[in-house]
Specification:
The structure is a single chain. By secondary structure, the protein is mostly helical. It folds into two domains: 33 residues; 35 residues, no CATH class. It is built from five helices and no strands. The chain is elongated, with a radius of gyration of 18 Å. InterPro entries: HTH-like_dom, Transposase_IS3/IS150/IS904.
Length: 83
């Protein structure tokens, strides 16, 4: 979470200053940044896009059961509650 904050605000503040304030090591931040996203994280991002699409297509009416059904009909395999 802290590393994500640093990444999002590096255009406004120096990385070294944010690391000092957030009490994290600069080397830890750069190591985190160098590691590619896991397959699970990439799949979560794709699912989130589809979830938002389904929700928007329903004009914000659909809840998790209907969105889950839409995802299954579209060929995605996941549980209603994904952890």
């Amino acid at each position: 979470m802290k590393y994500t904050f640093i990444e999002q605000h590096q255009s406004q503040f120096k990385v070294s200053s944010m690391c000092r304030v957030l009490k994290v090591h600069r080397s830890g931040y750069y190591a985190w940044k160098a590691v590619p996203l896991s397959q699970r994280a990439l799949e979560d991002e794709r699912l989130l896009i589809e979830i938002k699409r389904s929700y928007d297509d329903s004009y914000g009416i659909y809840g998790s059961p209907r969105i889950h059904r839409d995802l299954r009909e579209a060929g995605y395999r996941c549980g209603e509650i994904r952890k």
